[in-house]
Amino acid sequence: IFVDDENYIDMSTSISGSGPAYIFLLMETMIDAGVHMGFSRDTATTLVHHTLLGSTLYAMESGQHPAILRNSVTSPAGTTASAIYELENGKFRTVIKDAIWACYRRSLEMGGADSNVGPGRISNPPPFQTPSHHPVEAPVNEMVDDDSTKKMK
């Protein structure tokens, strides 16, 4: 894909440049789950490779929105619906989007640009300073007025 606007380079880095690492982490997680369930590592790896390859090819060939494709392979109250529920409950989408934004911000930082963009902005809080004096605690009876003290009795 040709990017004719320099502003899109950092954005594409966060999706395309670093994207393979996200996919490899997903693959690693799926393979590990397969092994945990009892598959050999080789079998789990083959299943995951073909699942991702087939899903990607199907998405590219169909041209349909991923939500439509996901719904087409998710039976109501079925096994996939249960898995999707867990992913949504675990904030899967939020974690992925936050990771992409973090990558984008870091790309801007490395390029010397302002990283104060998008949700979850990076801010540099002032360094912690120890107070030069200790606050004096007010006696309890000075913190409430007479009416509230009477009500508590």
Automatic annotation (TrEMBL):
One of its GO terms (biological process) is L-proline biosynthetic process. SUPFAM superfamilies: 6-phosphogluconate dehydrogenase C-terminal domain-like. Residues 6-110 form the Pyrroline-5-carboxylate reductase dimerisation domain. Gene3D superfamilies: ProC C-terminal domain-like (1.10.3730.10). One of its GO terms (molecular function) is pyrroline-5-carboxylate reductase activity. Keywords: NADP, Oxidoreductase. Residues 114-153 are annotated as: Disordered. Pfam families: P5CR_dimer. Belongs to the pyrroline-5-carboxylate reductase family. This is Pyrroline-5-carboxylate reductase dimerisation domain-containing protein. It comes from Chaetoceros debilis.
